[in-house]
Each structure stands twice: as structure tokens, then as C-alpha cells.
Amino acid sequence: MIGLTLFMLFIVLMLAGVPIGAALGLGGIVAIGWANADTQWWGLLAAPQNMQAGIAKYPLLALPMFVLVGAIFDRSGVAQRLVDFAVACVGRSAGMLPMVAVLVAMVLGGISGSGPANAAAVGGVMIAAMARAGYPAPFSASVVGSAAATDILIPPSIAFVVYSVSVPGASVPALFAAGMLPGILAGLALIVPAVWLSRQRGYGAAEAELPRPPFWPSLRQAVWGLAAPVLILGGMRVGWFTPTEAAAVAAVYGLFVGMVIHRSIGFGDLYEIFRDATETSAVIMIVMALAGIFAYSVNTLGLADPLVQAVQASGVGSAGALLALMMVLLVVGMFLDGVSIFLIFLPLLYPLMLAFQWDPVWFGVLLTMVVAIGQFTPPMAVNLLVACRLAQVRIEATLPHVGWLVLSFMLATAAVALFPQIALWLPRSLGY
Amino acid sequence: MKRRVPVALEEGLAVACMALLLAITILNVLTRYFTDQSFAWSEEISVFLMVLMTLAGASAATGRDRHIRIEYFYDRGTAQRQRRLKIFGTCLVALLFMVLALLFGRVVADEIRFEETSMGLGIPRWWFTIFSPLLCIGIALRSIGVAWSTARVLEDGR
């Protein structure tokens, strides 16, 4: 009864456009107060404690640091040089620029940890370049928006940091390693339909006539950007830094490249960069804090147990339950952002994961892939929205294109679901 | 929108926290390489700065109306309906953070009364936690501010 009220209240508030954190906090507080009506202060002192506990975790520091890295590299001028280098590599013909967009988004995915920052950085360069080559703007926005979704799979990733602090038994390095191959697979899954669609529909006919940048000079320009993922991922692998420290080092490196090498960041831009990173981090982390209250009420009211028992009794088995779960999350992901999905559903999903003995790292990768799909599936798609704003098209205009990319990304997700080794081989062989 | 109290106030605080977090983390890496030691206090300070940054940043984001929400229904319908939903949401946010401020206030009062000290540095815990109720009040006030200016537009529109 209380549980039902908690969820109904929460859902109604959320649909009415109340900020998600506030809906979580209010739902949680009402449920706690109702369940403890006869105790001192209605047991509500648990609310500030759990709110504090939701974010007062040292490993979570990786989140604001990687958000900062994204904000810095967004303006560092690295994206333009990576694009030139990628074009020099793959050459000039119809369908090559969409491929370049995906490849550059994947390399930037190895630097930044959030999809929208990636979409802004790649879109800022690619959308104009693709327009010059004759690609329609809605198609370019679809490609950029979907390509940026590989960012939260390719390490470093903010989604993995959030998952790791919420789920025991899934360390940040293990998740980062596990996301690598599924991220590359997802990137390939986007390149194929992007190139095929351009060829099929005759997009980018003007591309073949555009000049091809010379290989060596563009490599020399791009090397600062290419070195960043090596520094971040290599540094973590060799044990030089923890994920948080890797992010801090990458932030300083990005500032150095942006201010000294490419000179695209001036002293006057610093406040704005930090302000953007602070705002992005704070709106995510306040949801995490308030989700702490929600999770506490879900756990103390024992709301997950009946769900787990119902799923187990339904006889759909592990595979059926996983399939149903991913379908539900796909739909929810069309309306909710990724981190919120993790925070709302993990208190319910964690017991389910234990009951079916799913590997927590593999499960985290799968959830992140589903969330990544939601980042570019209309109507609510954070990455696609950023790309559409840059391309100055309405999100509805992307529908004829983005469907194919969604479908292909889903196939990649299905592959990881069927063959867990795609995710688990790398972390196991690295010894995490 | 006219703001009597500039959002830059909390925003500056949050930005300062972010800059300090970056500096402390970098310093930690450097000292570990040059001296094989790390600051024992850095973890506690970093966590405190992170909480402070979250609350201060959330307050600025409330003033700018930038929080994560489902915009699907919120952005539809007439301008009047949108404003009513906005007032509804902001009032609930204000209510929530007033309650939270009260509860955090009680936590701080207990910490002062029982003279609790922090784990790492051994300083009084309330030096850290006192900021939580204050910033919760800040978020509530920002929210009321947004509700107020929206309501004034609503009346003018009639």
C-alpha cells in the first residue's frame, strides 16, 4: 500500500514536470513518514542521512572530474584536428564523413565521460562539414547524436561511475575495461547503417570533390588529442592514477592543450568552462543525493522482494526476465536520462540481479547500452537534442534516419546480451 | 527574468569548490610521486567540497531552472498551463527543501550537542554539515523566487 503510493506519487509528480530529484525526494519522504507514523520525527531523520550518503562517497569524485574533462575538451579545439586526421585516413567519398563522425566520437569517448558533451564537441565540427559536403542536416544530426552515445560505453564513462557507486561488486576499472569492446562494437554498428544510408539515398555527393588533408601534417596536429585517451586509459591501467586522478590529470592536460598548444581557450573562458561543468555535475549529483532517500524507502519497505518473487514465479527464466527488463528500460529510456534511470531502477534491479546471479559488471554494461540507445531515441534524447540544436533542425525531422541507427545499436546490445564474453573478456584478462 | 539576488553568488561558490577539487586531486598525485605519501586529510575535504558543490550548484541551477525533468508534458499545452505546472513544481521543490533544511538542522544540532568529531581530521563535524541546512534554505528561496516571478507573468497575462 505504502509502496504503491510511493511509486504513484513519484510517477505523477515526474510526469507533471517536477524535477526528477524533487519527485524522488518527496516520494521517499512521504513513504518514510507514513511507514513510521508512530516514531519520533516520523523516522524522517533518515532522510538527511541517506541524502548525504548518496553523494558523500570518495569514488564519486570521478564524476565531476570527468564532466570537467568533457567541458574542457569540448572547447580545446581537439575535435576539429581529429576530424581532419580521420578524413586524411579514410579519404573522400560519399559516406565517409558520417564514418568520420562516429570514429571521432569514439576517440573523444576515450577522453570525456558524458554523451551530451561529446555530441557538442563532435557536432560543433561535423555538422557544418557535413552540410558543406551535401548531407541533409537531419541526417547529420542523427549520426552525431547516435555516435555520441558510444561515449558512455567507451571508458571513461560517467554512467559506469554512477553504476559502480550504487552496485557492490562492480569496480570502476572493471566496468571501464568491460565497456571497451561493446563500445567499439556499438561504434561499428553505427558506421554500417550510416555509410549504407548515405550511399543508398545519395547523400554527400559533393564529398568526393572536397580536398583531402595531407596525412602527416594532420597527424601532427591531431597527436595532442590522440594522446589523451592513451594518457587516461594507459595511466589507469599501469596504476599511475585512480580513475578520479586520471580525470584530474586529463583536465589539466586538456587545459594545457587548449590554452598553450591550440590556443582555443583563453583565461576569460576558464570561468565559463568551470561553470558549465559545475552545473552539469550538480544537477546530476543532486538527483543522486535525493535518490538516496528514495532508495532507502524502497529498501526499508521491502518493495523489491515481491517483484523479484513475482518474476521468479512467472517462469520466464533468466533470459526472459532480462529481455523483458531491457524492453521496459528501452521505453523508459526514451523519456528519462540515463543517470536517473540507474538511480530509480537500481534499488529494484539489484535484488533481481542477485536472484538470477547475473554478473554485475556484464549487467552494468548491458544497462548502459540500453541507456545509450535512449540517449538518441526521440522524443527525449539528450544527445540527439544537442545535435539537433547545432544543426538547427527539429527532432521530429531525424525520424527517417535515426530509426536505422537505433535498430543497429539494438543488435549490438543483443550481441552483448547473448555473448557476455564481449564485455567480460577484457576485464578478466586484465585481472580486474 | 529579473533576479534581485544574483545567481552568481552560489555559482561562484560551486565553481570555487570544483577548482579546489581539481587542485587537491592533482596535488595528491604529485605528492605521491615525489614523496611516496598522500594527504590523509584530502579525502575528507574532497568529499565535503563535493557535497558543497552539489548543493551550491543545485541552488544556482534552481535559479536558472535547469534541473533534470521530464519535459514531455511540461513543455506542451498553452503558455498558461506551462506556467501553472512551473509554479506547481517550484512550490513542491521549495516545500521539499524547507523540510530537508529542518531535518538537516536537527542533525547539525545533534552533532553540536554530542560534540561529534570527523573521522579523518578530528575537527567538529558541524563545521562541515552546517552548510547543508543553509544551502537547502537557499534552494527553497531560489525556488520561491522562480515561482514568484512566474506567478507575476501569469497575472499580467490575464
Care to describe what's here?
- With about 425 residues, chain A is mainly α.
- Chain A has helices at about 1-15, 20-35, 45-55, 60-75, 80-90, 95-110, 115-130, 135-150, 160-165, 170-200, 215-240, 245-260, 265-300, 305-315, 315-335, 340-355, 360-375, 380-390, 400-420, 420-430.
- Chain B has about 160 residues and is mainly alpha-helical.
- Chain B has helices at about 10-35, 40-65, 70-75, 80-115, 125-130, 130-155.
- Chain B is elongated and about 65 Å long.
- The mean pLDDT of chain B is about 90.
- The chains are: A mainly alpha (about 425), B mainly alpha (about 160).
- The interface between A and B is large, with 58 and 52 residues.
Give the SSE map.
The complex is a heterodimer of chains A (432) and B (158).
Chain A: H1 2-15, H2 20-35, H3 46-55, H4 62-74, H5 78-90, H6 96-109, H7 115-132, H8 137-148, H9 158-166, H10 172-201, H11 215-238, H12 243-261, H13 267-300, H14 304-313, H15 317-333, H16 338-356, H17 360-374, H18 382-391, H19 399-418, H20 421-430
Helix pairs in contact in A: 1-2, 2-13, 3-13, 4-7, 4-12, 4-13, 5-6, 5-11, 6-7, 6-8, 6-10, 7-8, 7-18, 8-18, 8-19, 9-16, 10-17, 10-19, 10-20, 11-12, 13-16, 14-16, 15-17, 16-17, 17-19
Chain B: H1 8-35, H2 42-64, H3 71-74, H4 79-113, H5 126-129, H6 131-156
Helix pairs in contact in B: 1-2, 2-6, 4-6
Please count the helical segments of chain A. Answer: 20
Overall morphology of chain A: globular
Could you give the count of β-strands of chain B? 0
Structural class of chain A: mainly alpha
Structural class of chain B: mainly alpha
Largest interface: A-B, 58 and 52 residues
Distance between the termini of chain A: 43 Å
Mean pLDDT of chain A: 92
